[in-house]
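Lab notebook, page 48
Experiment: co-folding of the full assembly
Goal: obtain a model of how the components sit together before planning crosslinking
Operator: M.T.
Materials (sequences as entered):
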Amino acid sequence: MVSEQTVTSAQIWDWLEAVPDPEIPVISVVDLGIIRYVDVDSELVKVTITPTYSGCPAMSVIAMDIETELSKRGVSNLQLETKIAPAWTTDWLSEKGRARLEEYGIAPPQAAGGPERCPHCQSVKVDKVSQFGSTPCKAQWRCQDCLEPFDYFKCI
Amino acid sequence: MSGEINHLLEFLLRQGDNTLVLGHRTSEWCGVGPALEEDIALANTALDLIGQTQLWLGYAAEVEGKNRSANDLAFLRDPYDFRNVLMMEVPNEDFGRTLMRQFLFDAFQVPWLTELQNSTNQRVSEIAAKSLKEALYHLERSRETVIALGDGTEESNKRMQATLDYLWPYTGELFGEDTTDQAMSAQGIAPVPSTLKNAWKTLVSRAFSEAYLKAPESDFAHSGGRTGFRHTEHLGHMLATMQTLQRSYPGATW
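Observation: model returned without errors.
Model output:
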């Protein structure tokens, strides 16, 4: 347990690295780029998050997970704020996050609007199956070489 | 309450009720879509629309100042309090009508939200910027699907033409102009929707020519939804389903 007076925002950022995205558990909420600010003002820790998609049902779980993790670390005076502007963009995914997505089998977003390659066999011969996928942030693609379907993290 | 606040509230209800009613209609496809991928796409589209509704109606509830929430506005208002355009509430009928309606709305919503990003009201501009990203994505799909079905088989073309003929008279209401629209325009909060009609017509006409479909020439427009003057009989039935839980068990949560 850490006395709250000694908590720094850098520490909070570190701890938030331990909070996974509930739907894509290989990346943290920090990698996802939804933690916008961490402000520490004496006893009060203020964390500002931004939603990925306006209706993403994972947001309330994410807020709960952040509260649980920080309270485990001894932060009791936590204020969670949601901010929609500037709107979240996949540009805010960290490099580490992008690499982990690919290892996990999800092609990371590309400005070109489609995956660069199949996350399973690296073939560049890929087809779109559907513009939407298993969560609001993903689309369904398939590989013409290994024939495996895969998720693509939509670029917005 | 000053007249100014009333107009802003009306404006916000129009935005939120459009996305709420279309979002609910779209969610009716959940589990019964024509293919797994389409089912997922429809459910995701509905989710985006309901998310946008939370933003619009959340702000509307604040502006109203009666200590109500977005949920209260969605689940505890009666049909005549709704401010969506009538096109949103007509039944889904089939996949073709659902996607045609989505396209006709998306083609309006994209230029509309683009304009609203420049609103003098910061909240409006923030909600518009967030919603626009989703609307652009929806437009990409609804446009492609309308073209694929129009330029598909004889049967799919026939059904898409019939659905376009049916929905067309409902599109005029998107471009209404009344005292609320004028008040929003005077305050720089939103342009008068009728100013977007040409941009919309160009966008939809281009898609229809690729889809081998012909838009009716008549400018006749059904109206009464966005003013709340007269909704179709369909809205009451839809709300009876949508609101049943909160009406039967007020305040229920899970």
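Interpretation: The mean pLDDT of chain A is 92.
Next step: discuss with group before ordering constructs.
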